[in-house]
Each structure stands twice: as structure tokens, then as C-alpha cells.
């Protein structure tokens, strides 16, 4: 049996998911959508303050899972605390602003 060692210094430091989270968070001014605190992209799962993809309308409540319109970034802890709760009126206003910054909605 031949085993190759892998030099992790050549491995990519950020996967597609991490790049996507970072891109979305840019439009949230680098802050958690739910609590408003700064996101730290050096933290990784399962750290409770690691950035995670949050479905604005919970999938369990009929929200789509694979559309950019339903994705915001939140701390893992905040995401889990929100659970299946529907967004508050304040979160809806904030959501529209974030989607506008991302170019996904337009004012008429």
C-alpha cells in the first residue's frame, strides 16, 4: 500500500462556500445579519461565532434553499437561535436593504 503525504501549505485556504459567505457578508458590511456584530472569517465551524449561511425564510417554513434571495450571513450561534422563526418586521426592512446592496432588488 502506497501512502502519499499531503503538504497542507499548498492546499486552498478557502473553499467555494467560504468565498460565497464572504461575498454575501460584504453587502452586510461584514456584520451578522441577526445580531449586527462583526463577522470573523478566521473562525471555522463548529465555533459558535463562525459565519454561516442563514436562510432568511426558514426552509422548514417553505423558504427556498438554493436561491440567493433567501441567503444572508449570520454567526452560527445566531443562526441556530433563530431556528425556524419567521423574520421580524425589522429583519424584513434590513433584508430589503441588503438585497438592494447585492443588486438583487431595485426601487421603482
Write up what this structure looks like.
- The protein has 108 residues and is α+β, with helices and mostly antiparallel strands.
- The chain has one domain.
- Helix content is 29%, strand content 9%.
- It has 3 helices and 2 strands, in the order H-E-E-H-H.
- It has helices at 16-26, 76-82, 89-101; strands at 51-55, 71-75.
- It has a two-stranded antiparallel sheet.
- Residues 1-23 are annotated as: Disordered.
- Keywords: Plasmid.
- This is HNH endonuclease.
Question: Mean pLDDT, rounded to whole units?
Answer: 88
Number of strands: 2
Q: Residue share in helices?
A: 25-40%
Please identify the structural class as seen in this structure: alpha+beta
Count structural domains: 1
**Could you name the ranges where pLDDT drops below 50 across 5 or more consecutive residues?**
1-12
Output the number of helix runs: 3
What is the spatial order of strands in the main beta sheet?
1-2
Helix-strand string: HEEHH
Q: How large a portion of the residues is in β-strands, by DSSP E?
A: 5-15%
Main sheet summary: 2 strands, antiparallel
Shape: globular
Explain briefly what this protein structure is.
29% of the residues lie in helices and 9% in strands. The protein is α+β, with helices and mostly antiparallel strands and 108 residues long.
Keywords:
single chain; 108 residues; alpha+beta; two-stranded antiparallel sheet; 2 strands; disordered N terminus
Record the SSE blueprint.
Layout (H helix, E strand, L loop, with lengths): L15 H11 L24 E5 L15 E5 H7 L6 H13 L7
Antiparallel strand pairs: 1-2
